[in-house]
From TrEMBL:
<feature type="domain" description="HTH tetR-type">
    <location>
        <begin position="14"/>
        <end position="74"/>
    </location>
</feature>
<feature type="DNA-binding region" description="H-T-H motif">
    <location>
        <begin position="37"/>
        <end position="56"/>
    </location>
</feature>
<keyword id="KW-0804">Transcription</keyword>
<keyword id="KW-0805">Transcription regulation</keyword>
<keyword id="KW-0238">DNA-binding</keyword>
<protein>
    <submittedName>
        <fullName>TetR/AcrR family transcriptional regulator</fullName>
    </submittedName>
</protein>
<dbReference type="InterPro" id="IPR036271">
    <property type="entry name" value="Tet_transcr_reg_TetR-rel_C_sf"/>
</dbReference>
<dbReference type="InterPro" id="IPR050109">
    <property type="entry name" value="HTH-type_TetR-like_transc_reg"/>
</dbReference>
<dbReference type="Pfam" id="PF00440">
    <property type="entry name" value="TetR_N"/>
</dbReference>
<dbReference type="InterPro" id="IPR009057">
    <property type="entry name" value="Homeodomain-like_sf"/>
</dbReference>
<dbReference type="InterPro" id="IPR001647">
    <property type="entry name" value="HTH_TetR"/>
</dbReference>
Amino acid sequence: MDDAGFAAPAGTREDTRMRILAAAADLLAEGGREAVSTRAVGAAAGVQAPTIYRLFGDKRGLLDALATYGITTYLRRKTEHEPGDDPVEDLRAGWDLHVGFGLANPELYALMYGDPRHGSASPAAAAAFEILAEHIGRIARAGRLKVGEERAAQLVHAAGSGTTLTLIALPEQARDPRLSHLAREAVIAAITTDVPVPAPTGPVGAAVALRAVLPETNALTEGERILLHEWLDRIAADDAP
């Protein structure tokens, strides 16, 4: 697998777990999700099926662990770089890295985002969303977010994953690199301002700005902070024309 970079040591319980994940990663890359059966993984890793069940619970648990390991490696690289002076540019870089990861690891990416679960995300996708939410929070604290943080993060996530899955589905020679660029810039234009807004006008702008800096105050009790956070979320969400 191009970016996941599994190692396959042997020995301890964790070594056995990693060996199984390495075997599953190879099968996934070569034959897709259908190739990742417990029988095939066990044969490739040199373990019996009960060992897989003991470590991962079932096939769904194995697939979740595989996706989580892959995205953890990706996120580790993504967070190696210090944030720049411009959080919007950092969001652009994060988008490009996300799309690049998906194109380099199509089967793993499809495992993470191509099988949505009602009411919840896969553990791997949830970890990636947390990083995205941090990017959006930095933009809000810089006074450049013009919609609520949650809505902004959901829009970037929907557009980014949709663009990546669309490109994965196309033959490599038919992929237009401008598609990702246009989608990225359209989303950024929809959620950010060109320059910081020193004094947000109207309740929505004020709520977005206050929500972004709320963690910096110690004047509220935990209950008051939760209540105010809920109020600000409701005001910030009222941004429809």
